[in-house]
Fold these 3 entries.
Entry 1:
Amino acid sequence: MLLTILADGAEPTALGLNATAWVAVGMLMVFGIMLWAKVPKIIGGMLDKQIAEIKKTLDEAANLRKEAEALKAEYESKTAGAKAEAEALMDNAEKEAATLVKQAEVDTKALVARRKKMAEEKIGAAERSAIAEVRAKAAAAASQAAETLIASRHDAAADKALVDQAIGEIGKTLN
């Protein structure tokens, strides 16, 4: 048989090779078959393909990052623009509010002045009306008093003298 077993504790051998030698021969055969089947080239191609895919993925990631940074910059500029616009709107609103307050003050002063003038006119009209009424009553009282005085002091002869005097004066003015 090809396999020899020694009884003294020596190692077994086959075709004169021990176990370590057979492992080495097996490995050499596996490497030889791998070289003959061009396994290193296939493995290299697979690795190159994976490297290319990884590079492609990294390039896509870099492009995505650039796009994201561009979008971020665009939104930051839009945000800054919106913030500036909001501040401008607030400033305009404050100015408009101040203008409206000033206009309201002017309008209020004008309204107060008009109402004061109207009140003064009403008071003046009431005073004139009261004065006219008092004058009318005074004239009525005076004419009644004069009538009473004339009636008590004048008789028909005195009336005749007055009438003659009035007619004479009228005649003088007509000539």
Entry 2:
Amino acid sequence: MTTQAPRRPGIGDLTEIRVREPSRIADGWAARRRRDLVGADGRLLIVAADHPARGALGARGDRQAMASRGNLLERLALALSRPGVDGVLGTPDVLDDLLLMGALEDKVAIGSMNRGGLQGAVFELDDRFTAYTAGEIAARGLDGGKMLTRICLDDPGTVATLEACGRAVTELAGHGVMAMVEPFLSVRGADGRVQNLLDPDSAITSIHIAAGLGAASRHTWLKLPVVDDLERVMEATTMPTLLLGGDPTGHPDETYAGWRRALDLPAVRGLVVGRALLFPPDGDVAAAVDLAAALVHGEGS
């Protein structure tokens, strides 16, 4: 007599589980099947889903693209089901939902840590650590923690952010898990909005500042934007680097061509892409993800 495997909870079940069986989340993290951080090729394709917690819901011109949690979870689950997708980056609310849905088995899970610098806020650059802590990341068996590190020389909030990021790098290294640092030199425009400087020299400066954070660098990875003269930019570091996919506004072929050239550089070990894959212009999430996987891991990944 054969027994059927228990049905995986769907999106419609998540609220009831949170009401009646919240312990299933902690139990699920304890039982989750884990994998090595990187496989034989040493590369990673990570899907990013931590934008909503910072109040950034837009994608490709639609300011409310990620407003529906159910729709976002459907897109994430589809992306994670495709060959060559190594894992996901998100805040606890998103990762806990994906865990309950069974989407994180044998996947890399990176916890997003500082989401306090809300998009458009006057305090945006005082980017407080309001999500995962290093201790919780280690306790739940996540594979790393990511921190946004925007550096604005005219904003006093920067120094608090730098100190907090340095502390997080140290604590994550103590637990033996990845610290993913995402640095930018940033300015406030005339309209008060924060703008990241994406010229090569600014990227190089941000890399050197980020590399010096924390009391240990053995588990530090960088998450960097694709900028001009990237070969020269990447000479600034020996740390393994994942490239930021961003929210492209041009033709997808131009985006993919830029990724392809960048992935040839030795320190570049893959991509972290969210909106570009989850909200492709033609709506075909699977096709967009498969193309990115082929770029990172090669055809047939």
Entry 3:
Amino acid sequence: MKIVPNNELPKHMMTDFFAKHWGSTEMVISSGIFHYDELDGYAALDDDGEIQGCITYVIDGQECEIISLDSIIEKRGIGTALLQQVKVTAKQTHCQRIKLITTNDNVHAMEFYQKKGYQFTELFPNAVEKARRMKAEIPEKAENGILIQDEILFSKVID
């Protein structure tokens, strides 16, 4: 696995990856509307140069916000490696904290981030309902049967 800045890849690779795995290249969350293929980030590539995972982020002052993290193959360290690379970048740019938002249905993400030392910081009740008004393709219910309705902020102080 090789980690590379996403801006070193042809833009269509990132656009295609996000369209396939997120349904579009746009993310609507409490902190704003983001276009994945225009954000800073990193991609994990396999030996054939295919994207196996991707992370995007925004740095604002002393905070780094992770906008998306995807790993095609679970339990191989791809997400962990991408998260670590963003932490290195955040430290280099003098960030004090890394934060991210996930939704209430994403129990896998909540488990992953807590194992990495992130803490539940804030709850935004019914935030997905507001986001759905701007991005209608956000489903009402997740594959696990949980209604998608709230956003949860996780954060970690950079050590």
